[in-house]
## 1
Amino acid sequence: MIHRSPGSPGMLRRALLTGTAGLLAAAGLAGAAGTADAASTLGASAAAKGRYFGTAVAAGHLGESAYAGTLDTEFTAVTPENEMKWDAVEATRNSFTFSAADQIVTHARGKGMKVRGHTLVWYSQLPGWVGGLSATDLRTAMNNHITQVMTHYKGGIYAWDVVNEAFQDGGSGARRSSPFQDKLGDGYIEEAFRTARSVDPNAKLCYNDYNTDGQNAKSNAVYAMVKDFKQRGVPIDCVGFQSHFNSASPVPSDYRANLQRFADLGVDVQITELDIEGSGSAQATSYTNVVNACLAVSRCTGLTVWGITDKYSWRSSGTPLLFDGNYGKKPAYTAVLTALGGSGGGGGGTASCAATYSLTQSWNGGFNGQVTVRAGSTAITTWTVTVTVTPPQKVSATWNGSPSWDGTGNVMTMKPNGNGSLAAGASTSFGFTVQTNGNTAAPVVGGCTAG
Ligand code: XIL
């Protein structure tokens, strides 16, 4: 939206910038960069409780500074959202592509984050060729897939979801139909775990599923399998509880008890794909309940949310995550941080921002300026920047901000137009047109004040 200041003349003339046109850039900096307190992030707070706090990551978003900035500030573990799935790494038989997954693993290792490998054997996101194999060939292909993928990442993966979603929903407790189940029978799960252990004995090996978060027929069936594996010495180290919740599938009241009964079998438990549709305090309370359940179970070694920002969630319309579409911290974020024993939710540390001016266009009689507002090392919820022009210059239009004016009309105070939340290190910008009226001096951009 374009805001026109009082006295704005009608049509604006715009031309492409053809050099600097004698206008110098001015920069305004204010506020010391805040140093985040150790317990003011999800990752640091969870670490103080002996746990990791992870997120699903999509390689395609790592180039977005606010995405990577929030990831690096808040999280201590990652799970590639799709990049390690069978269709991503072995779309064609025995031809492996690891580039997208490698991007995530390299980023995570560079920051000292854990990586959860997701996933080796799953009925979904499975290339069609797998379903066309004979039983003998399928067994060979499954073991080859596990071996090749785990070898590529050997030594660098904290835990692998070796088998994902092998059980049916509903009351039957039966195995889900899949090429593996249908051609190899129940034993494929055991075989996958044995192969996985032989390839990377240092990775924890998990079974992962959804609708197993409370005690029900499906979780009872998984429980029976894990118990049997432990009794017979089939290698299994952990069970993942996806924990995708909404109003039709809320956080179960026996969530903690269910985690505990699995832990009592001698496996770690992990919350692996947490997201809870909703908003405000109801969503925050549900998140609190999940965190408290994990903290109450000593073998619950960590939690992973299924994405950073609502805008990239696989269930985006349900706004199920901890950061809104502008990377602002939601009440759910503050609730999780508080449950983890941290503090400073909603902007811990010293809120600060910096404003930087640049000339984007100029023409005979006018120019366009742009101010980039960047948050310091702590997320901010709003910002204020002043822009002063030299009489007889006049600001004739603005965009991406909400301006107000002093009595002279020379000093413009700009605030966000709508949501002013910026994640740590994230930036936004606003623009304005100046009519020079004969004076081509650059505007003076004052300090940025964060809120
Ligand atoms: C989802 C991803 O988030 C989507 O991007 C993709 O289109 C489908 O898969 N259970 C799982 C995850 O184990 O791998 C799924 O991830 C969500 C449900």
## 2
Amino acid sequence: MTTREKPNNLWVSRWGFILAATGSAVGLGNIWKFPYMTGEFGGGAFVLVYLACILAIGIPIMMVEIGYGRRGRGSPIDAIRRVARESGRSSGWSLLGWMAMLCGFMILSFYVVVAGWSVSYLWKAISGGLNADSVDGMAAIFGANNANPLNLGFWSTLVTVTTMLIVGKGVQDGIERNVRWMMPGMVIMLAIMIVYAMFSGGFGQALDFLFGFELGKLSGEGLLAAMGHAFFTLSLASGAILTYGSYLPDGSSIARTTFTVAVCDTLVALMAGLAIFPVIFANGMDPASGPGLIFMSLPLAFQQMPFGTLLEIIFFVMLTMAALTSAISMIEATVAWLNESKGISRVKASWGTGIVLWIVSTLAMLSFNVGADWTLAGKTFFDWLDYLTSRWMMPLGGLGMALLAGFVLRNEIFKAELGLSKAQHALWLFMIRYVSPLGIVVIFIDALGIMTLDMGAQWPWLLAALAVFVAIGEMLSPRLRRQLAG
Ligand code: TRP
């Protein structure tokens, strides 16, 4: 099987890719999860470790994914099979593509429910339904919104239909055209919110909180959460970035593009922090209030401020757009696969996928009301989707992709695709062979509950483990290379 010469679709420009990939990366993870995790794990120290993880794990793996996509020019399944065959390796590696595609689909099944919260809050903000005089009152509003399956289902269905409409239109007319205005729009709204926050009286405190790097304050759990979040926020190991990479024109530099996307993603997360925390601090609220931060504390804080309702509306418009540009990317892999490998038209593929997605996401939505006690091992269906994808499938997929690129494929492939200088390439190879896999294994050990790592104390062991990894890997890899040559 050879690399497809002319892909069906390409981004109109390199910026089309950057905007779409940034749109995928920037989502609920940045605006909802990142601020509340930073709040829970104590601020600056968490931010610092998260940035380190983006650099050491996220960026190298993102380069690999884009490389697979562009080299293999296809959906995750086809692209990975093609690059493996090109190196004379088993087509079985395409299992990684299957898992990634399934992972994207599963994430989307619960993501549309959270995105539905965002749209419903937008509606509440507009129609004046977000009035309460305490966090408890806001919690009651949140609870009531979830309690009625017809209400909650309406909002998640709306998100599902919108997503499928955009994806059905195709790469250039659907995805690229929409991210072109949504992404700048989002950044402008964030900027407005930050300017507002500057005058709220809590800005200095927020700066200290976010950028007061005190490593001592970080727990082992915080370190692991930071690593897991680096995966989630860059949309890795779930088919999204790989499929977008398959539409990247040949000339553009994967390394430069990856850096741009990762930097934009990080900036938006930090900007979201700068927009949210000043408002929280100015109103004397607790930054560590967990997942309810933006659905309970923030609306309450806004209510007590001038132009609060307007800001609230801007905030939830922005959150909805961020969620939509991510949702699109999660389903693109499946639609592309049905379209290219099964010859189903894009529109039919979108609606077909959309119907299955609607059924699964409706089951996830029911976890908040009638299905609240359909549990297995204490987890609802919604929880299972989240748990399986973020604890298992993303780390496993990322590990597989890193090892495939680092040890199994011919080195020339990534030399050609990444186009790095000799020294840069050596650094990338070192990261992808050792640093990223070790980071992932550490996440795993913790997720499996084998042991709880306290990296504040155990970092010398981690360095030792890295040295062992490097020694074993470098001993084995010449043999692998010989095998490939022979
Ligand atoms: N990165 C997105 C966020 O931060 C979520 C997301 C989009 C995602 N596509 C993904 C997460 C694929 C995992 C896999 O909200």
